[in-house]
Structures are given as C-alpha cells and as structure tokens.
Amino acid sequence: MATTEEGPSRRTFLSRGCLQHSIYEWLTLVATLFVPLVVGILTVVLPLQQQNLSERQNENSKTIAINNRLQDMELLHDQQKQLILNTFEKDLTSLLFRYSTVSSGNDTYSDGDDEEEHDDDDNDDERISLVIRTKALYALRQLDPPRKILLIQLLIDSGVKNRIDLSHADFSLSVFPPGSFYDQLQFVNVIARNMKIQRISLYQSNFSYSILDGSSFNGSNCSHSDFSYASLQRTDWANTDVSQVMFNHSNLSGANITPQQLTTAFSLQGAILPNGSTALI
C-alpha cells in the first residue's frame, strides 16, 4: 500500500514542478523576464557605445585637423624661408649691378685718374659690403641649414665671399654638398656645431675662433687652412688632409684624428690634443 500511495505524489510533484508550477511555466516566466531585461541592457549599453564611438571620431577628427594645421604651418614657414632667400638673392644682384667694384673683388677702378673719385669708390665699396653683410646676417638668422648653404653659395658665385664678414653667424647642422669646392672659405668666429663638411675641398680656408664641436671633416681637403683658437671637440677628421694646417690653441679634445695626421700640421702650439694633453710646440 505504501508504494501505491507514493506513486501519485511523485507524479504530481513532477507534473506540478516547484512551488506548484510546472517546469514549462517557469521557463515561460524566465523567457518573459529575460527579453525585457536584454532590451533594457541594450537600451543603456548601445547609446554608451555610440557616444564612445562619436567621441573617438571627434578625437580622430581633431587629430587630423591639428596635423593638417601643422602641415599648413610648416609649408607656410618653408615658403617664408624661400622668400627670404629669394629676396636676398634679388637684393645682392641689384647691389652688385650698382657697385661693380664689389663684384670685381680687386683694387681696380673704372676711373683711375681722379683721386677723389677713387676715394668715392672706396667709400661705396665699403658701404655696399656693409649692406650685403647686414642683409646676409639677417637672412641667416631666419633660414634653415640647407638654405644657409645656398646663401653661402650665392656669396661665392657673386665673388664677394672674402669681402663679407659673417662672424657670429650660426651654421650649426649645416650639410655641405659632398664633392664641392669651397677653397678659401672664410668661416671666422662662426658657430657651426655638428656641421658636415665631408669630401669637400677647403684648401686655405679660415675657421679660426669658430665653434665647430661635433662637426665632421671626413675625407675633405683642409690643407693649409687655419683652425687657430677654434673649438674642435669631438670632431671627425678620418681620411682628412690636414697637412700644413694651423691648430694653434685649438681644442681637439675627443677628436677623431690620428697622431700621424697631426704630425703633418703646420703648428699645434698650445692646442689641446685628443687625449687631453696640451701641445707645447
């Protein structure tokens, strides 16, 4: 009899499930609650994702706008530098046409019979040299290193390079085109850190009193040049011809130059050698 009474109770429990509800009813209830729950979550999450996406898009747009602005400013600055160089070239040409004595580079005069006219020519020559120097220094302060080399080339081509004092001008980071000839270059008392003058002819050039730290003269011909009182720390002289060079009182501390090269120099009196010692003669 116990088994007979227990059978209907178990069937009733299985059919009615838990808490007097069938499993099907519980599944229906869960499904009914789950859909609104998912919809509610999506209602909150999707706008947040869209907001984050919009913010990222705005940030990307701002970044692109800033980059475009920087590129426009860089292009504008480049155009301004080119305009400065073009203006200097135009002014230099105009001045040389007006004063032929400057472009000749010698002491001849168009009217050599009149001493008073000679004095006027001298005064004109001095004035025009001063004007060119002023314009050159003004341009050099605003030009980038590549255009500074172009300005130097303009002075060389015009024939006035040895008449113009460029002292205190800054040529740092400038790179001279390899294979060029810059013989008798006048770089007296200039600043030219980390300058590259590689595989270039600099015969009889003058770099005295200049700051040339970190510069490279690799493979160049610097023979018979003057580096007196120049700061030449950490400079590179590999495969460089330094025969008959004046290194008087220069600072070669940390320079890449061999003792064999230094023996070919004209004078090392008072120079600080690469090892830190001071040359006596």
UniProtKB/TrEMBL annotation:
Protein's UniProt keywords contain Hydrolase: no
Region (Disordered), start-end ranges: 104-125
Keyword annotations of the record: Membrane, Transmembrane, Transmembrane helix
Keyword DNA-binding assigned: no
Superkingdom, natural source: Eukaryota
TM helices/strands, residue ranges: 26-48
Biased composition (Acidic residues): 110-125
A family per Pfam: Pentapeptide
Protein name per its UniProtKB record: Pentapeptide repeat-containing protein
